[in-house]
Queue: 4 jobs
Job 1
Amino acid sequence: ILALLFFLNAISVAAQPDTQMIDRTLRSMVKVEFMLPGDDEQGHLCTGFVISASRGEALTARHCVPEGEFFVDGEPSRVIRESDALVVVSVAKMKKPPLDIRREQVKLGEQVLSFGYAWKEMSVFGRGVSTRLDKDFGLDGPLAPGMSGGPVVDMNGKVVGLNQASNDRVGIMCGSTEILKITTVK
């Protein structure tokens, strides 16, 4: 019994995220804001994260960038590259650190951290990867409004996904394979 308790404690300690990694991830995040015709003064808020500070590029979810005007960290932005689910947008060249993207796909049962501007406030949610859905993955808990486009990172701070959508039970993230396709500059 003591050996089992020691093993369970070692797992829970190993699954604790590093606060420096969390701080670095938070520093790499950007706000993506836009208005749609007929919107009130509130507008819409999504999340993105820096993928190249030197090129001035951030990544977010495709549905976070309308056809018209949008802003990243309060500055006008433009689309650089896009796919059906993801979009690389311009950001002012800055000191924000880019995030590393993990080459290996996330595994079912893996513990991850989901970042985003939940209800307009910077938030971090611990989640488990619960489902494989073709190219996407389900997280064991919903995403909050504003988290779309935010990074999902493993316990080492490597991006394993991007927040896409949610219902009242499950959050959906795009996996790192799709992220690497759009972020790898040729």
Job 2
Amino acid sequence: MDTLKAFLPAPSFPKIKHWINELDVQIKITPPRKTKLGDFKGVKDALYISVNSDLNPYSFLITLTHELAHAFVYVKHKRGVAPHGTQWQDTFKAMMLNFLDPTIFPDEVLKVLSAHLKQPKASTLTDVNLASVLKKYDRVKVITISDIDEESIFSIPNGKIFKKGKQLRKRYRCVECTSNKVYLFHPLAEVIPIQ
């Protein structure tokens, strides 16, 4: 439990510890995963949560609270409700109200987090405003497609090379340089600029 303290904003730890003890949930801090920030599993009477180790303290707190909300909903309803349905949304919002405090989150995070909590999404990454603000506090800085200029050339980890185009509603329209195929990129997609 004490190792968990290092990943959270200090003032949030007592409440998180209380919820973990109340649920008797096992918390595992995992190596970074590309597809998810955290997850929850209920297996019979045992509850398990994992959270990625590379999250900044604010992202870690939001993700852990998100997964703890799943655990509370599971204890009450088992599998009888939608994973991110009304029961989860109401539980998550109520839990996060404990942390809407300037001693826990910086003002710029509080502002977008408050807006996010009006209609929480299945992932903080789908809320571009929240994800963008949280990204500023990451330990390892990455470059996203939103950080580079239109018409810039960039690559992605699989080696393909693209030219950045205009932003459509949410995503950026980009053309792969060898095939001229059009791809749409999420604003927070990690890219490697090519000079």
Job 3
Amino acid sequence: IDIRDQTVASLAKRYNTDTQQAARVGRTALNLLADLDGYWQLNAGARTRLLGWAADLHELGKDISHSGFHKHGSYLLSNLDMPGFSQLEQQHLATLVALHRRKLNLSMISERHPWLLPLALVLRLASLLHRGRSAQNHPPVQLIVASDAELIRLELHLDRYWLQHHPLTWLDLKNEVANLADSDIQLSIVQLDQTST
């Protein structure tokens, strides 16, 4: 048993996180990350574990503040005693939690750790797709990357019917397009007919 798993579970319990919501977000984030692996050449083992833990703890700060919980969660992860985690792992977790919503502050990602960006992007999208906190699964979703030297271009493929019946999620996704554009990341939402998915 990895002591880090016990540490994460203990923190989630201590700060009353919704473990079912965290599991939904984590599954979707890991699926989206798999879509990006061909482009970013991610180290599947260590980085997927980090993303899983970040998903488990992404709502850690909600016990303190509802509106700025990503900042509070990041602060806690930067400063709590976390048995099994190195300082660098702890900082990476704090960064992912800080970046999972609102403005994407790329200055938080070190040039030595550019692989944190795709992890942050998929965590952001997964948390948006599960904003309704429903136990129902969202439809099949796929993330495609097409990048050049100056701009990262992402396409999020989703079922048109599902988007029409989840207008608040659709609105949040439109806002995410604008948020990412401020960081030179172009996100397009591609609506597919269900027969195409």
Job 4
Amino acid sequence: MSFLRQFFGLGDPGASAVRPPQAMSGDLITITGPEDLERALRQGNLSNAGQSVTDETAMRVAAVYACVRIISGAVANMPIGIKRRIDDRTREDATDHALWDVFHRRPNRWQKPAQFKRMMQAHVLLRGNAYSLKTRGVGGRVIGLTPLHPGRMKVRQRDDMALEYLFTRKDGTRVLFQQ
């Protein structure tokens, strides 16, 4: 056995170089079916060290926090252009569109447009998706967008291929939104 193999503990040169991580006092999860997989996903991803990694724990790491802050800030400062097609080559701002005021003035009662975009982008970066509830006014016109926490949203596809969104509120009640 060579010095490097002995020093790095590679052992038998014919043995596989890839070894499973060592389990420490029950930290290893065995997934035998869909129920086990669902439970493991709810708990977060376990690292090789046995620690659960969620969006909240990841944001405690300075590098993750800085990356999310920089990317979300850049997206928050980008304009959202709602355009109207005049012809094949010409577009103009659609300032009279129903969503113009929502995206450029007030998406909801407590957020400015930059704050809303920053929050939505952070949800996408940390959870993989972002959801918001459309608030409708008189005549069905959209007058606001309320962010929904992506960790409490379940997306299901029905038999007719349409999506439905099951949101769990803080008090435990569930609300079903259609596509």
